[in-house]
Amino acid sequence: MSALKKFTRSQLFMPVVCVVLVLLINVVYDVAQGRPFYEFFRIYLSDAAQPVLQGRLISILNRGSEVAILAIGMTLVVSASAGTDISVGSVMSLCACVCCTILAGDMAPQTTELAVPLIVGILGGLVVGCLCGAFNGFLVANLNIQPMVATLILYSAARAIGLLVNHDFIIYVRNDTFALLGGYIGPIPTPIIIAAACIAIALLVLKKTALGMYIQSVGINRKASRIAGLNSALIIFVCYLICGLCSGISGVVASSRITSADPAAIGLTFEMDAILAVAIGGNSLGGGKFNLAGSIIGAYTIQAITTTMYNLGISSAVAPVFKAVIIIIIVVVQAPPVKAYFARRRAAKALPTAKKEAASV
Amino acid sequence: MENNVVLTMRGITMTFPGVKALDNVDFTLRKGEIHALMGENGAGKSTLIKCLTGINDFEAGEIRVDGVDHPVKNRSTMDAQKIGISTVYQEVNLCPNLTVAENLFIGREPMTALRTIDRRKMVKQADELVKRLDIKVDVTQNLENYSLAIQQMIAIARAVDMDCKVLILDEPTSSLDDSEVEKLFKLMNQLKDNGVGIIFVTHFLEQVYAVCDRITVLRNGTLVGEYPIADLPRVKLVAAMMGKDFDDLAAIKPEGFTYDADAPLEISARGLSHKGTIKPFDLDIHKGEVIGLTGLLGSGRSELARSIYGADKAQTGTLKVGGKDAKIKEPIDAMHLGMGMLPDDRKAEGIIGDLSVRENIILALQAKRGMFKQLSRAKQEELADKYIEMLQIKTASRETPIKQLSGGNQQKAIIGRWLATDPDFLILDEPTRGIDVGTKTEIQKLIIKLAGEGKSVMFISSEIEEMLRTCNRMAVLRDGQKVGELDGELTQERVMAAIAGGDSK
Predict the structure, then answer these.
(1) How many CA atoms lie within 13 A of A343 on its CB side?
(2) Predicted ipTM?
(3) Is the whole-model pTM more than 0.95?
(4) Could you check whether B5-247 and B248-338+423-505 share the same CATH topology?
(5) Which residues of A touch B373 (CB under 8 A)?
(6) Domain B5-247 annotated CATH 3.40.50.720
(7) CATH hierarchy code of domain A60-314
(8) What is the pLDDT of residues A307-321, one digit of tens each?
(9) Does residue A351 belong to the interface with chain B, where contact is any CB pair within 8 Å?
């Protein structure tokens, strides 16, 4: 099979087509507006004293970081437990609150000085993320509670717990070191670096260990996996734990961007974007086989759509309507009956040629 | 259409990626006949049936059904049912938590004037239907309260009641015991007398000769031939299915393969039990021994094995493995002690459907090594190829999802999975169920070979003959209890007597 044919049949084909489609809309619009066709792809250094990378592509990669990180955990959770973790957005906000509260120390709710070294605050946030993940994991893996119900608990509670941690304040940590996490290292936006590191680690772990096969195996057939020697409950637990950790990382990045912890705003509706990223990536929400790269592409596709809305000058209030239309198209072209239809058409086309070949032999 | 003929399939051709599943296959079914569709695993039986019922989309050929004046191409099982083709599968596709009556009338419930379900009428009609077919059930009870055999008959009753002209029975007897099979045959004969054409797919040769009128044999997706039952004795049938004369099954047990009570112990269980499934039992298994577990379905054969392996954790008793005390909480503990278990329910506990043949084969070995010691890709492929070759697994490639393989080939892959872990004690629970004759022999030979290498095998099968050929000792179970052991000269009479009760020495 030629490389091209192989690619068109791979799971990644449709997600990539979707991204290209979204980018194309921008190009067409730019040209129509009399801008050069490469406007969208232009990356340039800003004129500020400390020049940083700018451009729409950079903006997509930067703003899409949190969802991309969440998508890693969500992909594993969906695969192993055939359910979704809807608490990730709330957990993000809780982790942000914990991180900022630790960093502000006694000087809350407003400070420019760090009460403790930055790393302590970050670790605090991540540990809380892991705890939340462990809680979800315990409910799903050990108590066999449906994922949607189990994670609904933290979905509603985590944001409120964050508010308790903050003593009902929005905590501001107006500190340059802290701002670095959501800012720039050299000319490169830090969130891009963090997301890239997370993705790289995740891909490496999946490649170098058997975790990926374990997760898929448990997701496809939990009973059979157990008979074959896998600890199904532990594997599901680990997936939720990783998902919690991802929420923690995203939460810290998101709070650094705004140098504050606003329990009501951070990570709002991010769980939906993370789930959508998994679906756009061509992964079945019914669990089992997964493709992490697909989810990552899905995450950035969502951000690309949002950025495109701004580019087209659509007001942010009505943007969700257009976003919905695009997402419907993306999801429908990947739906099994539609795929089957194209497969039938392909087979119908292939058959006469095969017969011809047979005749010529 | 010819007189009496209810269904003809001509020149059916269909390809799966990389495999020609059916090549120009003809099939004819007459009214009031029971027609066996025979072939080895992967011969194309299921594929042909699926072409008929609209699950598969065949590329060439023509299907004609009595009463339809144009060639039929079903798009779904619903289409097939509309023109009178019904199928009952090995796994009962009904709803256990609904009543028998509801199951019989799902999707076609009698309605009242208010367009609500007329329950009274439904129960009455259901009752009439089961009485007519002589199935003894209370139609207001939930389906799950009845045995698998009864459930299967309810499925058949449902099919028959929908004006079916062609009834397809796909391995209906695989999970039934002899008396249940008897009942099913009675029902089949009754339907036959009513003029229904029945296609019977099975691996049990004796059942074919007990009930069928005609046999169509497939091999490698092609038609071998159609024979009246009298013209094709068993040996010829097997030869037709395999395309060769097969060596005598009885001769696989080597000379001197008898029970050696002095061989070192591999497993020694004392008072193991699992509440509700198996009562406390003692069992010693020696190295190099093939021990058979025999008893009726539901007598606790599988459950005994599962309590040793940790699939159902033993709640009482002690277990020694290789002379040392062993604590087994989970299957992985048993695996680290050198055990392996092929469970009887292949679909629910054996295969990981969406994973490839390669991944399915290496899964247990990888689980044993642990997550961080991943087998290299090259090693994985080498192992997969080794067992595909050794067990002659028919698959388009090692990367094919295992669910695309035929049942017997799936089973072989799972056997490969356990052989890859190089176990000292291997439990095989119904390894030959739904597998063709040729492969059965191969598996039996394999068991003897493992024993010859000093390994212990626990073999569970519903076919006594097969156990007699391979085991050198048997444990007999009845009603969840181990009631005796048999060694020395094993004969069908002795085993039967032991199962039935009375003399079990």
Answers:
(1) 12
(2) 0.85
(3) no
(4) yes
(5) 210
(6) no
(7) 1.10.3470
(8) 888 888 888 788 788
(9) yes
